[in-house]
Structures are given as C-alpha cells and as structure tokens.
Amino acid sequence: MEPFDRQHLVYCLSIQMSEPATPERETSEAALARQDRLNVILAEHLKPHIYNLHLSDIFVKFTGNGFLLMTDRSDSVPALSCLGVILANNFNDEVAQAFGIAQNRLPALRISLFSGHDRRIEMPDGKREWVGDSLRKAVHLAMFLHTDRVLVDDSIRGLVGGEFKIERCDAEPVIETDADTEAAGSGWVLGQLDLDSSVDSGSPELYIYTLSALGRMEDAGHVAQTVASRLIGDAGGEDAAAEASGQGLELKDTQGWGRLLSNLTDYPTANAFFIKAKASGAQTTVDMYNTLAALAPDFNTAKSLVEEMEREGIRPDIATYNALIAKAPDYEVARYWLRNLIEDGGRPSAHIYGTLIAKAPDFETGKFWLETMARDGLQPNLAVFNKLIPKAPGYDIVCALLDSVQAEGIKLNIVTYNMLISKAIDFDTAKSWLDAMASDSVNPNLDTYNRLLSKNISSQPAEELLKWYLSQENHSEEPIQTAMATYRKYGRVDQSLRLAVEYPHLPVAKRLIREIMDEVFAYLNIIREESVRPNVAGYNAIISKAPYFDTAKSWLDSMRKKGIQPDIITYNILISKAPGFERAQALVEMMRADGVEPTIDTFEKLFEKDLSTVSADELILWYRAQESHAEEPIETAIVSFKRIGRVDQALRLALDYPRLVGAKRLIREYMVEVLSYLETIRYEGVKPNVVTYSSLISKAPYYDIAVAWLETMRARDVKPNAVTYNTLIFKAPDFETAHALLDEMRSEAIEPNVITYSTLISKTEEYESATTLFARMEQEDVQPNTITFNALMLKSPDYDVACSWLEMMKTEHSKPDVITFNTLIYKAPDYETAEAKFREMGKAGIQPNIVTYNRLFSKDLSIKSAEEILAWYLEQPYHPDEPLQAAISAYRKMGRVDQALRLTHDYPHLQVARKLMRDHAVEAIAYFEDLLVRNPEDSDAAYALGLVLIESGNAQAAKPHLLKAITCTKSDPQRKAIEALVGGLSRR
Fold this sequence. Notes:
mainly alpha, CATH 1.25.40.10, eight-stranded mixed sheet, 8 strands, 5% strand, globular
C-alpha cells in the first residue's frame, strides 16, 4: 500500500446534476426515483465517450447526484476536457430526444475540471480511493451556477488553453456558505475548440472525435486533413513535416494514422484521409481498411476496399468479414461471405451470427443460426435475441423465445420490450408489458409509447386513454399524434377528433381538423338543405358525407323506417366507410338479404379493408360461396395482404390465381424457385404426382404456402405420403402445428416413420413431450435412429438423463456419432465429466471436431492449470489452434488471467489472446517480461510481449522484442509471421 502522506496532483472532472423543475404533486419518493433514473441515464451516456476518449482506466466515483472522474495523469486532461464539452453540449438534447422527456424536466449539468492535492489510500475492501482537496473542491464548485458549461481552474487552463477558447467565469454561488468558495470560483470557462491548435496538439484524434460527437463533421474532417497534409509536407514543405513529427504523437507511425482514421465518422472524410496516409508512405493495415469498410456507404464500396487490401497482400480478418456481412444487401450474399470466412480458416463470431439472424428471410432460418451459434460454443446475448424476435410469425412463438432468453439469465432491455409491444396481439396485452418493464427497472421511451398506441385502440375511449397516458412519468406529445392516426385508421374518427381538440397545435391534429371538419360542415349543410328529397339518391348523398360510419349507418336505418329501399350505391358507400373487414363483410350479407346483389366494385371495396383478421383460405372459401367468378377483387386482396405485411397470405391467393398481374408480380418477387420449378414441369409435359408436389412443398418459402400446395394436390386427387408430411412437419412454425400434422397423417392412414418422430422431438420445447413421442414410437414399432437419440439428449434436462439415452441408444443398436458426444460434453456438469466422455468418444472410434474441443474447453477449468490443459491437448492427434480461444475465455471468465496468459504465451496470434492483451495490458507486459528475465531465449515470450506492446499502442517499443523472437524461434512459420510483422513496423 502507498504511504498515506504521499500526495498526488489529481485532476478531477466533476459532473453534477442541478435539480430540474419538480412536477406538481410529485412525492419525495417519486422525486428520488426520478433522480436515480437520471443518474442511470447519465452513467450510460458516459460509457461510450469514456471508451472512445481512451479514459477506460480512469477512477469513477458516484457522488449521489452525479459522478467524479479522477486521475493523476496530466496527459488525460485533454480527454477529460473533451468529455466535459461533449456532455455540456449534448446531454440534455440527446436524452430529451431518446426518452421523450421535456427539457424543463431534465437537470442542467454543472461540470467542473480542476486539480487538487490528494492522497491515495486503500479501503477495507481492498479498493483504492482518492481523498483530499479534489473532493472538497468539487463540493465548492457545485455551489456555483455554471450550468451546461465547463468550469476549469488555472492548472487546467495552462494544460488545454491552447486548444480551447477560455473565458473568465462570471458564476456566483447558488447558496450562502462559510466555505472558502472565492478560490474555487475564481476559475475559467472552456469555450469552443480552436481548430488550428487542435491540429498542432499532441492528440489531434481526441479533438477529431469531439468535433464528430458535437455534429461538426466538416470541422472534424478539416482537422484530420490538415494533420495529414502537414505530415506529408503538403501544407508547409519539409519544415512543416518536421514540426508535425515532433508534436508528441508519432503520427507517421501507422499506429498514429490508424488512430486518427478511427475517429472519423463519415466515409468521404475518412477515405480522403486514408488516401493521404498512403501518399505519406504509411503502411496500410487491416485495421485501417476495416475502419473504412465499416464506414462505407454500401456493400459494393466495402467489397472494393477488401479487394484493394487483398491486392496489397493484406489478409482479411474477422472484422473485415463482419463489415462485409453486415453490409451485404441480402441474406444469400451474407452467407456467401460467411463461407469465405470459414474457408479462410476463420470462426464466425457472435456478432456475425447476430447479423445473419437479422438478415435471415424468416424465423426458422434465424432460429437455425441461433442453434448453430450455440453448437459452436458461443453464448447468444440479448442483442442476438432482439434480432430474432421481429421474425417470429406469432405472439406465442415470441413468448416461447422470451422464455428461453430469460432461462439464460439475460435481462431484457428497452429494445426487447418495444418489440414485444409491437408483437402483442392486442392493446391490453401490449400495455401489460409496461408493468413488466417497471418491475425490471426499464424505462419506456418515445418508441415504446408510439408502438403501444399503434395497436388497435378503437375500443378505448380517447378520454380514458388520454387520462392514462398523462399519468405516465414522461408523456411527450409525439405519441398523441400516433394515437390520433390509429383511431382514424380503425374508423374511430370521433375519438381522433377528441384528441385533436386537446392538442390542436400538433401537425396531425391540424391536418385532421382541416380534412374532417370540411366533411362535417358539408354534411350539416346537406341536412339543412330543404331541397334534399327523401329518396334513395338524397339519402345516398347524406350517407356519403357522414364523417363516421356509425352516423352513416344510422341514416340507413332512417331510410328503412321511411320505406325507402337502399340500393347498390348505398351499400358500396357504407362498405367503404366500415371500420374493419368483419363489419364490411356483414354489410354484404345484409345487402343480399335486402335483395341487392353485390358487384365487382362491392368486393373490391370489401377487400381493400384491413385483412389482418382473416386468412387467404377463409377469404377464398367465402368469396367462392358468393357465386362470383370475377378475379379483379382477388387482385385487390393480394395487394391488401401485402400492404399489411402478410405476404404468405398474398402468395396463397397468387398461387390459386396465377394469371392476375399482381399475382405474377408477387410470384416473381417472392417465389423465383417455385416459379422456375413450375416452368420446368410445364415445358417437359410432366404430369404432377406426389413427388412433384412434395418437391414443391419443400421449396415453399413459408409454411402457409407449403400447406396450400398440400390442398392443391388433394384437389387434384394426388394423395400425400409420409415424405410429404415429413416435409410439412419440418417447415411447421411450432411444435403444436407440427403435432397436428401427425394426427392428420394418421387420419389419412399414412404411417409416421423415424424421420417424422425425430423431427417432432427436435421441435418440442419440453422434455416431457419428447419422451411421450418416443414412447409412442415404441408402441408403433418405429425403430429410433441416431438422429432420434441425439434430439432426445439435447432436450434432456441434465447430463444424467442425457447419458441414459446414450445407454438406450446402444441397446437399440444405434451408433453414436460426433454430434452425440458433443451434446453429452455440452451437458456435462464439469470439466472432469466432460473429459471422461471425451475419452469414451475416442474408445468408440469417433473423431472429435472443433465443436468438441470448444465445448470441452468452455467448462469450468479451475481444477486444471493451463500447463496441464495444453500438454493434454497437444497429445491429441487433432489439435487445431481455434479451441484454445475457448480455454483462454474460460480462464478469463473465472478471473484466472494468469492461466489465460499462459495459453496466450504459446498462442499469441489468436483473436481472444490479442483481446486479452488489450484488456489486461499491464498484467500481460509484466507476465511476459518476467518470463524473459528467467529465459532470455524464450522466443514465444518475446513474440507475445511484442504483440502486447503493439496492442497497447507502443509499436516502436515492440520492435526489439520481435527481432529477438526472430533470432530465437525454431519455427519457420512463426519466423515468417514475425518477419512480416516487423516489416510492416519498419515501413511505418
């Protein structure tokens, strides 16, 4: 422990929140809850800026109403100054926009940056703490009214006065105090950044990032381009270049160019800077190209960058593939680059799997990648699940997926909850998620309320809805506009107008009043006109002007009472005004009862309605029962289904009416494979049989389309077989649907086989259901196979149950395969058990693969040292480098950084090893330096130490160690790799 009497000059950034205006009738408990929420928001807001300004090692202390960021390193002062300026300018606006909190409900920030002499002590829990002048000064400065400005003292002014415009502070204490606030208050205020001084500073990348964060992209680009020009002598010849090279940051070093490039946030500026970097003779690196690829405006630009780097002999890494897959225009292109990554010896990361899930064309494909990710030993995080949830075809499936997320112990965030609200089947269900959010301490934002009020609120009186919404802590006006639009969409214009009267200044309200009130006035004028005769034409005119459906319907009742018979025009007008498909459909039945026959126009108006409550099959069945053979209304229905996102239902209609223009267009867009297959059948004159239809079912992009083909083959007297049903069961969106197909098979006297049952077992979410299916197999003398038992093992609740299936598998003469043992190793409760199963795998003559070792090394390795793990692994006939990444991660997860470093010593080139070096640079440097003291000829330690220094941004210090490694290594591949690395450093 450091002696108590040793003082340090500590630099402290104090960020304190001044109390905002308190809402009326807010209790003290509610006020404290609001203050806590704002502190959480501030902490989350700080995280990315702390990382990007390279302040990750700084000491952070919560003060009760803000935070102190403290360091005894004077070279961190510019970064702290930048952080203060970013917060002062951005915090309130960004929080107001994200959470919909009114500006007068947000606290102003009192930000101060100052120095003080502190002592560093060790607390009882072993943590280190600063005590002394800095904290006292923070308390004093918090008493001064300098909101949304950065107050600094003379010491800070001397350190950053060149880069910032400085003004004398004119703040006065907010409260009277006996403390010596005069000294504290005699400070300065940080003003605008001086662009020329930012160029000349030793850390221009900090100011480039700050300018970008403030939205000053042109200025950020100007600073970057000026630095680049000076470095290559464009601005002032050799003298300028020489002066630039002595600025304190070795920017002629590739590392320096790369750091500057990484702080540019728009592609044109970054690309121009990159071109100058190359012109300066700086060695381009994969990181530079990755930065550009990530900023590229489209896939083709990113791809051309990768092609350029490959021409320069630079090999793509995982970040390169991440950028290409993320920017891929569609799923197939993303899969193509995934294959390239694997062929290049790479392993997909969790981020890549998340991107593939986001681009997947449907839920089943996304779920496949989630399962593949788990099989690869990668733990999906919430971001991955959030990408899969929107693809779920129904709310029940979303809830099942949510159960699996929570079973993993993953806490839901605002993005998840917002999607759950969107997927909810109705308004009440969606609203219930707000209670779940509250219990999970997740605060709703603007998007939450917009999604909620986009649900069908037609049964909610506007008065009650508004009262509830205003009771919410944050109730900005934007969601009120959403509610108005929703009411109008569902035909409740009266309720929409009720909100418009309360909020007449909103754009949606103004438009509504302007449009609807014209109709209202016209309607009233018609009623007042005595010239309107009480005949069908007169009533039709009144009904056409009625602002609401219920009002229009009341005039229909008036007609009947006066003995006036409504005609086709009457009903067509009413159908147009009906607030939903069901009410419009009821009008068709009513008109038939009145002896009025519907026309093509009638059905077109009907099918223009929101068809979300009806399936295509139900629609066709009903329409054909109307004895109407016109196809034009079906075209309208196809458009309506597609408009509301029910493409599967639109395709179902298109397949029954393929001659329609809309059907052809839809089939071309969504069913290229099916169309191609149909064309083959037509040209070859092949009569469709069970094989034909089973193939079509297998190609169907949606389950509903597959079922439609089943109905078509039945209609043509082609009997489905087990293959047909097995394909349908595989495509079924959930277990319940799949199980219903099993019952349907039996009703058609088609016997299920081992494929049927194995597929059903793999689809069930519950172990009990899986065992019930297996028992049914036995009763029916269906012989299980390896796939069956593998599925049962995966569904097993624990390792012992999974092993019992292995024993049964042997008695049934099914041969275990690599998937069998990989599943058992995955289920094993600890490393020893998993290793025993691995030995059993070898005795069975089954070769392990990368997944086997990944799952084995993902266990708790605390009973084994890294030395033992490595010795054992190298004895295996097949021991690729990749699984050692899982071992390094496992040791790191347990806090055994020393053991992780032992593996890194032998495998420093692995991505996980490089990340360990970055995150634990101090321990890594000490570890490898100690190894070299004990054995100066240790080439692996010299290589690893060189890589740690490169990862820490000290490339020049790395070079001697790398040269030493070249001299000592006995491995030709390692020597070549290090020589290439040193060659790159020499060209910087």
